[in-house]
């Protein structure tokens, strides 16, 4: 997942208001402590926690993403693993999972179960999910064209069945002498209903602490804040 896309990720997300996003997270994450950032990508948010004196670990399934994360901040500890299959043998006061990373996971219950095993009692878990409305927000006739200085990306969307979608990305990356190289990636996106989310939390030792939305981050995005009992 996210191989060649990792090389253009920071350019792709350059319009994301990371400072505002981080400020929102800090409403629930107050005092610096141990924190795990799942799906950390190139570590923009992770680095903000590091700067604010948190004992932070960045986790991602993509070795390529972590390669760029280490370029951005090589003082942070990074772990490459699939959170659906394994977890870190450590405990954290806070766990975050940003930018609808959860929607790329096929097994939500396994994700929550592994978070619970890594979370201190009384700790806070924050993640965001998107609803199916995200595809209407981004795609016009199931196609999204993204043209930037160093790449052009064509995204196509197909609904495979209820709550499961396929995203195909064709990336044309500018190389030397203005030659473009094509790379193709394929991703699955899974939609989770709030009832399923709450059941998963309750079954793994969490209570729902808060739910939040902000149009700045898209009308389809829901932030879930849970507390470990």
Automatic annotation (TrEMBL):
**What sequence ranges are listed for the domain Methyltransferase?**
30-167
Domain of life of the organism encoding this protein:
Bacteria
Q: Which InterPro entries does the entry mention? A: Methyltranfer_dom (IPR025714), SAM-dependent_MTases_sf (IPR029063)
Q: What is this protein called?
A: Methyltransferase domain-containing protein
């Amino acid at each position: 997942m996210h191989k060649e896309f990792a090389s253009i990720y920071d350019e792709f997300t350059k319009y994301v208001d990371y400072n505002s996003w981080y400020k929102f997270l800090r409403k629930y994450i107050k005092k610096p402590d141990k924190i795990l950032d799942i799906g950390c990508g190139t570590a923009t948010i992770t680095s903000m926690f590091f700067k604010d004196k948190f004992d932070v670990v960045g986790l991602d399934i993509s070795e390529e993403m972590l390669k760029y994360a280490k370029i951005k901040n090589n003082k942070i500890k990074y772990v490459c693993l699939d959170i659906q299959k394994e977890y870190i043998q450590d405990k954290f006061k806070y766990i975050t999972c940003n930018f609808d990373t959860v929607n790329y996971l096929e097994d939500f219950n396994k994700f929550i179960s592994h978070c619970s095993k890594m979370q201190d009692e009384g700790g806070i878990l924050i993640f965001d999910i998107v609803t199916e409305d995200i595809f209407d927000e981004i795609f016009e006739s199931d196609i999204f064209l993204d043209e930037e200085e160093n790449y052009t990306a064509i995204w196509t969307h197909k609904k495979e069945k209820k709550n499961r979608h396929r995203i195909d990305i064709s990336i044309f990356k500018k190389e030397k002498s203005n030659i473009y190289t094509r790379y193709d990636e394929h991703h699955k996106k899974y939609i989770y209903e709030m009832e399923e989310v709450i059941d998963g939390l309750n079954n793994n030792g969490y209570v729902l602490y808060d739910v939040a939305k902000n149009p700045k981050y898209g009308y389809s995005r829901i932030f879930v804040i849970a507390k470990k009992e």
